[in-house]
Specification:
The structure is a single chain. By secondary structure, the protein is an alpha+beta fold. It folds into four domains: 1-48 and 276-412, no CATH class; 56-264, no CATH class; 424-454 and 661-793, no CATH class; 462-660, no CATH class. Helices cover 49% and strands 18% of the residues. The protein is built from 25 helices and 25 strands. The strands form four sheets. Strands 16, 17, 18, 19, 20, 21, 22 and 23 form an eight-stranded mixed beta sheet that branches.
């Protein structure tokens, strides 16, 4: 009964102060919406790979080696390691699976040809991932002619007809029969986008040269996944296998570690062979931002409630005088807070439903609200109640603490000391907002800094064609190149063993004159054809490019600047480098090219003139100023002539490079959105407080106007307190923001500096926002007729 009375009284107070209530509901609703959206995103991130039932017992084997003076961790391993683990640790591992990393395959079924991402994998992988089968069986990869495909790929190839036992031509290299169809893996899994799984032993039989690596411990390119048995501890078996490679490779300086699936997504960065973090930093950051934005909305409620304390003081005094206990008054004020929060929660849930699709586009996620999970609704209810208690706690204890004698005598003060808590909360609000604003500026500066980084070649006009079948790989190079040039749409073409925008595979078995035998170095080796440099437009610094005029160039190499630094060769041109038991002459040095992350140091690279290595990508430069549609059509016609069994699959180099900024850009957009909403919530609070201050000082303003004060002078008088508080917030926020952002930038080797002008600029911007928020209330008060103000009792 008493609770019903509390809420009835609370509803009456809301109706009597509609503007005050509207500001509180709007501020809390926005804060709760931001917190809900970020909470759903954080939940999605934390649940990565939970789709797989065995995720706590799955791990990837990583290789740790002293390379170029540091301990580097890589997910690329040698093929024989898998059999070594099975032989030595059968008591610990339930399953193991080698995987050839994802790449795009050309598929043909009847007259239909499409491209799809897939892996070659050993038979245990589908069971390890607990794929949800729609048809067929998970262990089908034991049959070398079988393939597993996703539901979406089945629909793309066969429509509504039964896909089982249908034949698929893969890369125009081998035919496979569909032995199983599984549900597409969700976006929050490592193997999202993998549409077909092919048998590993089939790859050994049909992929040229792959079988040569079965006993090669020096070449590392493949992935190895393991599933530990139920009674085995992950750390314990990790320590047991640590030095396994040393049993097979003399004087080995490498060790192994197990990277649990539960840490793949959030903890993917290593330093000196140990996990140091990763995406978890972003998750923590935005979790904190969500809490901050919600806290700002709660501070608004506290501020506006305590600011109106003079209006409620007589009510408190009378109720205490007639016998109300303090706990009853606390219950009353908390009921008002819970009512406001409940209304805001309903509004926030509706806003979350409306803005979730846009939020998904912003974050590149497929987040949905789990309507049918009771735990979700319990969480929402608890979230609303906690928010209401936090928002209403200070006003409840503050207002209920008034002494009835002082109140009824009219001696309650709302002066300097009474306003101190309100001012403190306002400083906290704007400190958080300024930190968010500075952070957003730094994130965008870092993105732009990396975008402006010289990449060492010309991206515009370049396309990469996937060499997705043996037909295009074995096509006569000169005939294909000449026919493409004769179309009149392209300037040049070249083949290579890797894409221009991808890091190449590395090797540690290169030697040169003066190399320290005790130091392990790794350099990337990229097989190229003669015209590679001219096609991409690299910059030659020393020596010369590969040329057909020198038959001795076959097998020659060109180094980038980073590789020259690693070798320590003062005059590299003309010096030999040794690998694969052969001597390779250095003909030139080119400027460093950014072929991996634009935020990382350039990888030492050796460009090796070897046509039999250049079998992965074909790079084509389109002539400037011509129709792109016509050029692609002409290129496609030539490629289809030489590669009739596969699709013409290409990517623009500029778009591939731009995609490298996607993670940071999403962080920037989320930070910008959070900052705008945080500032808007703070401005709502300022608007309400300005109205309270203007009303409180109404008679004072009237007297000052009668004595000759001008409206501009009065506006300045009223706003100076808010300006001082904003400046104080900036002083507090500046060192905190600098420290946090300095630490954030340390994760990038190529990073911007924190410019000094950002701090005064954000301070000035915040001051302007403050003035705009309070100006309406103060201008109206300063312009009012003093007679009206002085007549009021």
């Amino acid at each position: 009964m008493m609770i019903r009375t509390y809420f009835r009284t609370a509803w009456r107070h809301l109706l009597t102060g509609k503007i005050h209530a509207s500001i509180n509901v709007a501020g809390l609703a926005i804060g709760m919406t931001v917190a809900l959206l970020i909470g759903l995103w954080v939940s999605e991130e934390l649940s990565f790979d939970h789709y797989h039932r065995n995720y706590r017992r799955l791990a990837q084997v990583m290789d740790v080696e002293n390379i170029n003076g540091t301990r580097n961790t890589s997910d690329a391993i040698a093929i024989p390691l898998a059999e070594a683990l099975r032989s030595h640790y059968a008591d610990a591992f339930a399953r193991t699976a080698l995987v050839y990393p994802n790449f795009i395959h050309s598929l043909a079924a009847g007259d239909k040809k499409i491209s799809a991402s897939g892996v070659w994998a050993q038979p245990d992988l589908p069971d390890m991932l607990t794929l949800k089968m729609i048809a067929g069986r998970r262990n089908a990869l034991k049959d070398l002619s079988s393939v597993l495909i996703t539901r979406s790929l089945s629909l793309a190839l066969f429509g509504r007809s039964d896909p089982m036992n249908q034949s698929i031509r893969v890369d125009n290299l081998t035919s496979m029969n569909v032995a199983g169809v599984f549900e597409d893996l969700p976006q929050n899994t490592r193997f999202y986008g993998t549409q077909l799984i092919l048998p590993w032993d089939r790859a050994m039989a049909v992929l040229p040269g792959l079988s040569d690596f079965q006993r090669d411990w020096g070449t590392r390119y493949w992935w190895l996944f393991v599933e530990i048995k139920d009674h085995i501890d992950m750390d314990t078996i990790g320590n047991r296998i640590k030095d396994l490679v040393g049993s097979y490779v003399q004087q080995s300086r490498e060790s192994l570690l197990l990277h649990p699936m539960s840490k793949w997504h959030l903890y993917s960065e290593f330093r000196n062979g140990k996990i140091t973090g990763g995406r978890i930093r972003v998750v923590r950051l935005f979790g904190l931002i969500g809490v901050f934005v919600l806290l700002l909305a709660c501070i608004n409620f506290m501020n506006l409630s305590t600011a109106r304390s003079a209006r409620r003081s007589k009510e408190v005094g009378i109720r205490k005088a007639i016998g109300s206990l303090r706990r009853q008054l606390i219950g009353q004020f908390l009921s008002e807070s819970l009512l406001v929060t409940g209304l805001a929660g309903i509004l926030a849930f509706g806003m979350t439903l409306i803005f979730l699709p846009s939020f998904n586009r912003l974050t590149d996620r497929q987040i949905s609200i789990p309507f049918w999970q009771p735990s979700f609704w319990m969480l929402i209810l608890g979230f609303t109640i906690v928010t209401g208690l936090v928002a209403g706690s200070y006003p409840a204890f503050y207002l209920s603490g008034f002494r009835p004698v002082q109140v009824l005598r009219g001696s309650i003060t709302v002066g300097h000391h009474a306003s101190l808590p309100r001012k403190s909360l306002m400083v906290i609000q704007f400190t958080a907002s300024i930190i968010l604003l500075i952070g957003t500026l730094i994130v965008y500066r870092q993105i732009q800094y990396a975008r402006d980084r010289p990449v060492g070649y010309t991206r515009e006009g370049l396309i990469t064609v996937n060499m997705n079948s043996m037909d295009i790989i074995n096509a006569p190079y000169n005939a294909l190149r000449n026919e493409l040039i004769r179309t009149g749409f392209i300037m040049d073409m070249a083949k290579s063993s890797g894409r221009t925008t991808d890091a190449s595979g590395t090797r540690s078995d290169l030697n040169w004159t003066g190399k320290d035998p005790n130091v392990v170095t790794q350099l990337g080796i990229i097989g190229v054809t003669h015209d590679f440099g001219n096609t991409i437009g690299w910059t030659l610094l020393q020596g010369r490019d590969f040329t057909r005029n020198f038959p001795t160039d076959s097998g020659a190499v060109i180094l980038n600047e980073a590789a020259v630094k690693i070798t320590g060769l003062r005059h590299p041109v003309g010096e030999p480098i040794f690998f694969d038991g052969q001597r390779h002459l250095i003909t030139g040095v080119v400027r460093d090219m950014v072929m991996a992350s634009p935020y990382a140091a350039v990888q030492p690279a050796v460009f090796y003139l070897a046509y039999d290595w250049a079998r992965s990508a074909m790079t084509i430069r389109i002539r400037p100023g011509i129709s792109l549609r016509k050029a692609l059509s002409a290129i496609g016609s030539v490629c289809n002539k030489y590669n009739p069994g596969a699709v013409f699959d290409y990517q623009f180099t500029s778009e591939e490079y731009a995609s490298k900024f996607s993670d940071e850009e999403r962080v920037g957009r989320l930070a910008l959105l959070s900052t705008v909403l945080a500032i808007f919530i703070s401005c709502l609070g300022l608007f309400g407080l300005a109205g309270f201050v203007a009303e409180q000082r109404r008679k004072e303003i009237g007297v000052r106007k009668v004595l000759g004060a001008s409206a501009p002078h009065l506006c300045r008088l009223l706003t100076q307190e808010f300006i001082v508080l904003t400046l104080l917030s900036a002083v507090i926020a500046t060192p905190i923001a600098w420290y946090l952002l300095h630490r954030w930038l340390q994760q990038y080797e190529y990073r911007t500096a924190i410019a000094w002008w950002i701090f005064p600029a954000t301070t000035m911007g915040t001051v302007i926002i403050t003035l705009l928020s309070v100006s309406y209330q103060f201008v109206r008060t300063a312009s009012a007729n003093p007679v009206d103000s002085l007549r009021e009792s």
